[in-house]
Design goal:
The chain is mainly α. It is built from 2 helices and no strands. Helix content is 85%, strand content 0%. The chain is elongated, with a radius of gyration of 21 Å.
């Protein structure tokens, strides 16, 4: 009986952790979507005010670098949510 109760509690704990991860990932995705929409609006405004094709190329280059940094940051957040702060999937 005690073994069965312990198994039920472990299952409950696993499910609770799973739901917490889903909540955190959903919140992270919502922040990313809001940020992306805001950035798109800013980029469109800057693109329309560009007078020189060289400026447009520079804008694209800066945006590509920023997008790479944002993607890396987002993956670090996902890793922290899934594996815990300071751990990676290889630590297991």
């Amino acid at each position: 009986m005690a073994c069965h109760q312990r198994s039920v509690l472990q299952c409950k704990d696993i499910l609770l952790r799973g739901f917490q991860c889903i909540e955190k990932l959903t919140a992270l995705n919502l922040r990313a979507i809001k940020s992306t929409l805001s950035e798109i609006q800013a980029i469109l405004s800057m693109s329309l005010s560009v007078n020189d094709p060289q400026e447009l190329l520079e804008l694209q280059t800066r945006r590509a670098q920023a997008a790479m940094e944002e993607a890396q940051s987002n993956w670090r957040h996902v890793n922290n949510i899934v594996h815990g702060p300071g751990r990676t999937g290889r630590d297991r």
